[in-house]
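Worked Example 4.2. Read the sequence first, then its structure tokens.
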Amino acid sequence: MVGRRLWRNLDYPFIGSIIAILALSLVVLNSAAAGISADPDYYVKRQFLWIILGFGAMLAAIKVDYQVLRRYHLPIYLFNLALLVAVLLVGNEAKGAQRWIALGSFIFQPSEFAKISVIITLSRLLEARQGRLNNLKDLVMPFLHIALPMLLILVQPDLGTALVLMAILLGMLYLAGANTALLAKLIITGGVLVSFALFAHFHYGLPLPLKEYQLQRLVVFLNPYNDGEGGLGAGYHIIQSQIAIGSGGIWGKGLHQGSQVHLNFLPEHHTDFIFSVVGEELGFIRTLGVLGLYFILLYRTLHIAGRAKDMFGALLAGGVASLFAFHLLVNIGMTIGIMPVTGIPLPLFSYGGSAMLSNLLSLGLVLNVNLRRQKIPF
């Protein structure tokens, strides 16, 4: 009886979209990673291992009633901060950033799991403040809640993940019933202030707490060819990505046939720019199919949020929807040249162990909320 009730509460379109995206990711990664390693299947085998571990994490997230997380929100928040501090003290540095902690042969990126921590703890905060998010004073605590992890992540430096936390906050505030007009004013004001700060930096030398390459990436997408190096400088990633996607045409060049990928013109084509590989090798029609799978995943996540039995569960699922939606918007946007290059991976698709574990763990929380929309004995 318990088993039948449990299976009846599973959201099969949600699960099906996850499996389909993961299967496609391995197929595309097999092409994208060819030639990077001496073993042509090295990255695919490792990614498959991360997927298996990720499903283990997803099952673990389903097992424990999400209500338990409400009681432990403070330890979760403090543990998250401790990990982010540990990165700065004992973390491994690569490509000018200190974002990873090594435990033997296992290397993980705490900022990926910080996203889940923020979703859980912010859900508890906003649930307690439900109905009291109508003016600027009411929003001070939610903004302070993410300020410290954001600051620690910016110091690494990891601008992309810091922006993800801000997107999660805004999305969850909207779902929690915050004043929509006030949120819109805050977003517009923030955009104006950032634009003014960047203008003042590049024209008058205003100091900003970002690396110079990060600042260049924030503006070069507006005109990637006008970077002072004939398209070979800060705009190189965007230019090569646009060439790759544009050359794919309607049906694509075919797997392992993409010239931008296999001649190594396109940087980071197995991680941040894997969507460019999809565009070049699968073409416009099949790319729409990939986007359709993500649409199903987001739609079902929001559907689950709407059917949650309490506000805490609704905010958990809504926070995950905000996380995935922002990742999709920025990653795909940067590959086609309408967003800055911020190093945000394509969820469930880009190569990366920490990101895969984090993605599947967060989706496990959504399934947890869905399974317990009614009281089911375990």
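Now turn to a second chain, presented in exactly the same format:
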Amino acid sequence: MRFEEFKSGAWEEQYQYKSFLPVPVNREWIWQDPRINVLLEDATRALGELNAYTRIVPDVDLYIKMHIALEANTSSGIEGTNTTIDEAVMDERCILPEHRDDWREVRNYVNAMNNALERLATLPLSMRLLRDTHEILLKGTRGEHKSPGEFRKSQNWIGGASLSDAAFIPPHHTVIDDLLSDLEKFWHNESIHVPHLVRIAISHYQFETIHPFLDGNGRIGRLLIPLYLISNKLLDKPSLYLSDYLFKNRGIYYDSLTRVRESNDIGQWVRFFLTAVVETAGKGRNTFESILKLRQEMDQFVVSLGRRAEDARNLMLLLYSKPVIDVRSVQEGLEISYERANRLIASFSENNIISQFPDRQRDRIFTFRRYLSLFGEK
């Protein structure tokens, strides 16, 4: 199928509304647009450079935890949750009661991603895996009554208060199984010659168009991207997350998806997606470079503490994966006494490594702000 000849689908008459039926995607794809070739080359190179950092950075899994937390926070933010990156890495006991519903949605995303990555080591990427991931995503949240882990058995819609004023109505639930089966075959079809970055760009569009769940489709669709890249060995670790780019460019993001459905312009969508990969991979590479510089400085600080260096080194490792702490989390994380943890925090605070939240005088919380700032805010 040539991008230039692509027909996205057709509107089907239902009872008092029309739903959109997308065409299958499991086919050969080619294009004439040279801009896609250049972007594909740039995106592949940027992804390779990013992946190289995950192989050379010491204790990289500590930093990957932050990448996952940031992605969870930003991807959930696209859907309307309102948490800061500080809150995303806090323990629940540190979260203000009025923020806990949003916090749980973010933490569910983290748990869903971690579970999916663990299972991906022994299972192929599949709809079964996405269903299980979806069940974790919605557990105990505002979406827990919207069939967690199950594909929808009724019509849903995007935008508007009802089907009558919806911005977009996905395909009827009776055709979902066939569409998802086609999409899964597309992921694993070795008889077609489609670059993986183009394949996942098309897959993300198709998944969001099918909208197979009653809730959580955007988050699962964005989570699908790193899972696909890891399953096809383009990444060793989940170091690429597009949600920050998509959040900042969400108007273009939604318009680009709509443009495929309304104008058959899949080439524009692929260009947008590849641009997102280039920008995000470059930003991720820069973040790893900054982490290495900060770590070198922190290592020098630890050595300067003499007899307390071992405790300080352990606390630094804890801070790289949990940059917002209280005394209890240090006590539990380092398996030391409360008094020893308190003295250690005091030492780090006096040396301006961590700083106390100004509005938490009673339940003291401290932040490794210099590190956290490397990951930015949504």
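Notes for the reader: The radius of gyration is 23 Å. The CA atoms of residues 153 and 174 lie 8 Å apart.
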